[in-house]
Amino acid sequence: MKMQEAQPQPREPETQPEPAPGRRRVTARTASEKVENIKELGQMGVPAVKSDIHCLPIVGQIEGHLVMPPQNKTTKYEHIIPQLVALEEDKDIKGLLVVLNTVGGDVEAGLAIAEMLASMSKPVVSLVLGGGHSIGVPIAVAANRSFIAETATMTIHPIRLTGLVIGVPQTYEYLDKMQDRVVRFVTKHSKISEAKFRELMFRTGELARDIGTVLVGRDAVEVGLIDEVGGLAAAINSLRQMIKAGVPGPGRKH
After folding, report:
1. Are 152 and 180 in contact (CB under 8 A)?
2. Given 133, 157, 189, 238, which residue is catalytic?
3. pLDDT (0 to 100) of residue 25
4. Domain 52-246, what fold?
5. How many other C-beta atoms lie within 10 A of the C-beta of residue 214?
6. For the CA atoms of 91, 112, 131, 36, what is the dihedral angle to 10 degrees?
7. Could you tell me the residue ranges of all domains in the chain?
8. What's the confidence (pLDDT) of residue 42?
9. 65 an active-site residue?
10. Sites in the chain below the pLDDT cut of 50
């Protein structure tokens, strides 16, 4: 008589204990995700929070039509512009927080990003951490409201060209027109006057072997360039208040 073999019983799936009330479990779902988090961020799990506020970092050098060397930390304008288009179209995103720590970079690329921010229909708040130098200034002031950390700095100086420059009058006329574009944008989107901005731009004696002005934290607020001294909590709180009050974006404000 042939005996029937015992059939293996299906194992019940292991269940994880439920988190305590008021707490939400946030873990990496697979081993590969854990390894990736350790490699990229130095930690096992990354908090995953669904928010109606999007954070857009502008860091390092703003890269334009020329590719920077690989050792340079850059923000590529061809990456930023599609993001801004998607954010404008996304109904789940109610506001945008722009965090700057940039040395500046390509003038036309920086102005393109600033113009995109200034034309958004959703409220935008900018926060300068570390530095918002050169062409980072128009990006910082393009928001509905701008913040700067106490120790952050902003450098205001004339437009410079690197590399081969053709020494003809048309070259200098072009530089003047581009300079005027920057001045008009900054004075339109901040409280600083054109005369004051140009005075800071062409001031001598503050920058070694150069002209321009470095503004530290509260100095940028006192001249009317930035709205308020504050950090992350102040910037997010301001943006939350705008969203709650239905404040339109910079594109509908001006």
Report:
1. no
2. 157
3. 46
4. 2-enoyl-CoA Hydratase; Chain A, domain 1 (3.90.226)
5. 17
6. 50
7. 52-246
8. 66
9. no
10. 1-2, 20-28, 163-164
